[in-house]
Design goal:
- By secondary structure, the chain is mainly β.
- The strands form two sheets. Strands 3, 4, 5, 7 and 8 form a five-stranded antiparallel beta sheet that branches.
- The protein contains no helices and eight strands.
- Pfam families: DUF525.
């Protein structure tokens, strides 16, 4: 995607959720906030998502689904959309990465990559 006509920027931020985690049972819960910004020139709708969630043992969960948190945000150039969701691991740290499949108002379908980010419990817990 060399031209900027179709460009979506994705900014993730992850948090450890201590009150929902159970370290003794190897249950580590993480919340993440995602900000999606249409940095392109054409309005576009988020159609679906694809995640690869990898724990510290290199076990990979692949998640695919329609929309995000039950919604299909439609973003005009310059607009942003934020949502929160979560992931549960059996290890105190891991990573997430993936992509959103987008459809521009002109019918063009394209992927918006989600760069890899860390899920990490505080060191005192592990």
């Amino acid at each position: 995607m060399a031209d900027n006509k179709y460009r979506i920027e994705v900014a993730p931020e992850a948090y450890f959720v201590e009150e929902q985690s159970d370290v003794a049972a190897d249950r580590y819960v993480f919340a993440y906030r995602i900000r999606i910004t249409n940095a392109g020139e054409v309005p576009a709708k988020l159609v679906s998502r694809h995640w690869l969630i990898t724990d510290a043992n290199e076990h990979v969960q692949e998640v695919r689904g329609m929309g995000v948190v039950g919604e299909h945000p439609h973003l005009k150039p310059g607009e942003s959309y934020e949502y929160m969701s979560g992931a549960t691991l059996t290890t105190p740290w891991g990573t997430m990465k993936g992509s959103y499949q987008m459809e521009a108002d002109d019918g063009t379908r394209f992927d918006a990559p989600i760069g890899e980010f860390m899920l990490c419990a505080p060191r005192v817990l592990h």
